[in-house]
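pls read this stuff:
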Amino acid sequence: MELNTKNVFELLDLAAETQGRVTGGGVLPFLVSDPGLGKSQIVQQWCDQPSETSKSGKRALLVKVILSRTPAADVSSIPVPDVKSGKIIWYDTGKFIGNVEGAEDYDYVVVFYDELPNAPTDVQVAIQDLIESREANGTFVAPNVVFCAAGNPPESGCGANQLVQALSSRLCHVRCEFSLESWTAYASDVGINPWIIAYHTFKKGESMTNFDPKVVGPQADPRSWEKLSQAIECNPSPYIRQVVGEGIVGLYEYTAFVAFERMTDVVHVEEIIANPSACHIPYDAGTQFAVAANITTYIGGRKAELTIEESNAIIEYLDRVSEVNEVVSNLCVRNSADRNPQFTQCEQYSRYNANHAGL
């Protein structure tokens, strides 16, 4: 399955509708993919959808449990003797069944078991018993609690184990593949550096991940590119930027990304603003994407000082670019609007938005 919000949202909708109806019933999604593709982020996005029926205004509270470092006792609770009654009392953290503070303010509580295959056998058995019975030593799981899980396949080299068959047979196994379109939309929403977005759009996602389970060290994946974006936004010195870049996505990928950044010298934003109707449009797609990233960086940096005249001129230029490469112009307009809402106030933006359905 392509890993995007549409597919995962529909899958979680189905899980929320079917789980809790009967004991042990319902669809329990188990999202499987190579590391760093963004499974957790999409589950969080599903939870953060607006709700008119919850006090929080959001659809669900996400309770994330990293199972690779969780003992079985935490899942099934711990027996403690009660001196007064002479009986055994079971204590648990509550998070494994969604019994956490603030849960009543949401429509759903999503208990997200991450790194499920990394859990030892006794933890897997405890999880299987919990999701089957929806009960932990007398404490029942509320009907609005939704279980889902994620992990890496055994061949990923991330310490994953084979799942216990009793648990495996109760899961809906979904192998997820990277989606550039979904990642681009996510990246624009959360403010990932426009150069990184433009670079991967130009490369059609080919440089997004180079995961090799035999290699120990920095490797490129969506998570590492987002970390690089956070570092770039802090504007470190060129030397530290290189050290960090090579240490996060690897020497080869960082070097290729820097080479892409340097392609922008062909066209400057000031030239575009001064003469949008005649300013040069690069012939090759790589330089077009680089110019688009430069425009987005300029617009984001101007913030409230961005003028209507500048915005109109830039969109007039991008209108011409769209005749050559609409993917470039649409990406630039969308990312620029996300980074600076001031950009959307000009007349040209409304006209462009109406004329380009792909935006």
Q: What stands out?
A: Residues 55 and 105 are 5 Å apart (CA to CA). The two ends are 24 Å apart (CA to CA). The mean pLDDT is 83.
